[in-house]
Amino acid sequence: MSIRQYWFVLWELTKRELKRKYARSFLGILWSCVYPLMRMALVVVLFSTIFNKGIEKYPAYYFVGFLMFEFFATATQTSLTTLKDNRNLLIKSKLPRELFVLSRVLTAFVNFLLGCIPFAAVVAWYRARVTWYYLMIPVVLLLLLIFTVGMSYAVSIWFVFQRDAMNIYSNFIFILRFFVAMFYSVEWVADGVKWVIQHNPLYAYIYVMRQCVVYGQWPETMYLVQMVAWAFGMLAFGILIFKKYENDVVERL
């Protein structure tokens, strides 16, 4: 099968995932726009009196963190069970197993892009100045996508060999949510916690996007290096794990 045919199959698998996700939803795919906007409104109402005075453009600040973290969390959590969910196709077809993981990641990425529509409206509300730093947007998103693909490869194999992986990973994501400075400033926490957050790969992507889009500033070099290193390091790790154990997948399922 040619590379072009693989792309066609990947897109068909992604469309199938999107249809499955919104099959019973009244709003359908529009929910991807409405849900993050509702979450932002709720958080802003709840925390505006606490955080708003200390964080400039707080709704946009929160929105960036929420959208990017939710993309990563959704992509990796749905990828966790993708090999099990597609067991029959894995057995009956000769399609590369990576395609099933990639379709889950791509589905989450489409939802993320839809969520960026109301985010753009929030940024416009604050009359954020459009600068050349906006050119960093596709770079940050591509690196985040690469990082997420690598993580998704690894966790999909992990679930095949360890069925408790779902519970373990769900709790990991829950805890991780509080270490990306989504709704608070990293400057407000103790030095030890601050160090952990600043070396959290997800925080690097969120921070750079905030600086470039919300505040129109160039981020520190440390975070740019982290983005690249984490993206390709995790992709290499994910591919290594996936290739090492993919032949044992069917037997384990």
Topology:
Layout: H1 3-21, H2 31-51, H3 58-80, H4 82-85, H5 87-92, H6 98-125, H7 136-161, H8 165-176, H9 191-198, H10 201-214, H11 221-245, H12 249-252
Short description:
The longest helix has 28 residues, at 98-125. The chain is built from twelve helices and no strands. With 253 residues, the chain is mainly α.
General description of the model:
The protein has 253 residues and is mainly α. It has one domain (3-14, 29-252). It contains twelve helices and no strands. α1 packs across α6 (98-125) and α6 (98-125) runs antiparallel to α7. The model has no long low-confidence stretch (mean pLDDT 84).
Question: Mean pLDDT, nearest integer?
Answer: 84
Tell me, briefly, the overall form.
Answer: globular
The helix content, as a percent range, equals: over 70%
Structural class: mainly alpha
Q: What kind of sheet is the major sheet?
A: none
Distance between the termini: 25 Å
Instruction: Give the total of beta strands.
Output: 0
Instruction: Give the SSE order as H and E letters.
Output: HHHHHHHHHHHH
- The percentage of residues in β strands lies in under 5%
In total, the number of domains comes to 1
Number of helices: 12
Low-confidence stretches: none
